[in-house]
Amino acid sequence: MDKNLKIGVVGLGLIGGSIFKELCALGFDVIGVSKSAGTIEKAKKYSFATDSLQSLNDCDIVFVCTPMNKTISTLDELENILNENTIVTDVCSLKRFLQSKNRPQKYKFKFIPGHPMAGSEFSGFDNSIEGLFKEANWVLTPLDKNLKEDIKKLENIIKSLGANPVFTTPEAHDEAVALISHMPMLISQAIFKAACCNELALKIASSGFRDMTRLAISNEEMAKDMINLNSDNIQNALLKLYSSVGDLLNKDYFEQICEIKKQRKEMFKN
């Protein structure tokens, strides 16, 4: 791994901050960019940090880790700063909206869309940690114009963070995350909303309810973006959930849950 690479991280929240801290620990030359003066001061303990995108003008790789609704505008700003040799990637939990209408084809820099499958219900630089991406999957949805050597360079950085690169299309990615991330978050919120009308239920709620509603405290801005930008896939996911509930209630429940339990244990062996 070439530790001489200069890497920029725009947005130092949970994901961006964790990338920033890990890259610093690995010995890379890292620049952090944030609009928060408080975050900048905290980040300076690790490496150079600033509020200026212009400071990234000679970076080899740039991670754009802003909220989804600010990603396109950030990429547009970087178009006027970065050169044609810079590799740029994002961490958005949706990919179609970034790759529609040939938008990324216009950038002179080398844009390779991505999404690390890691995080928590918490947010902000204070909650970012080294090791967040260890053994996590990191989805990449390359453009047709991306060169193999550029994809490989980004792939190597991702592997150095401890993650496992997974390649797919924007459409397949957005359909999959609706099932495993966006729909579960919505259901978690709905479960809490449904229980709120029963004082006794809330009083006696314990670990099961706590675990089932953990995603209800997800970052509000991120949650709104996911629901607004992936509503079609979320609706289809809800239909599949409804169908699965029907199968469980109308067929041999015991046999089904035994098989589900077996598959669930196999999937998450730890």
List the helices and strands and how they pair.
Blueprint: E1 6-10, H1 14-26, E2 29-33, H2 37-43, E3 48-50, E4 61-64, H3 68-79, E5 87-90, H4 96-99, E6 110-111, E7 114-116, E8 137-140, H5 148-160, E9 164-167, H6 170-195, H7 199-204, H8 207-212, H9 220-229, H10 231-250, H11 253-267
Parallel strand pairs: 1-2, 1-4, 2-3, 4-5, 5-6, 8-9
Antiparallel strand pairs: 7-8
Give keywords:
9 strands, alpha/beta, 270 residues, 2 domains, 6-phosphogluconate dehydrogenase C-terminal fold, single chain, 11 helices, Rossmann fold, three-stranded mixed sheet
Summarize the structure in words.
- By secondary structure, this protein is α/β, with parallel strands linked by helices.
- The protein has two domains: 6-168, Rossmann fold (3-Layer(aba) Sandwich), CATH 3.40.50.720; 172-267, Orthogonal Bundle (6-phosphogluconate dehydrogenase C-terminal fold).
- Helix content is 49%, strand content 13%.
- It has eleven helices and nine strands.
- It has helices at 14-26, 37-43, 68-79, 96-99, 148-160, 170-195, 199-204, 207-212, 220-229, 231-250, 253-267, and strands at 6-10, 29-33, 48-50, 61-64, 87-90, 110-111, 114-116, 137-140, 164-167.
- It has a six-stranded parallel beta sheet with strand order 3-2-1-4-5-6, sandwiched between helices. Strands 7-8-9 form a three-stranded mixed beta sheet, with helices on one face.
- It is globular, with a radius of gyration of 20 Å.
- The two termini are 30 Å apart.
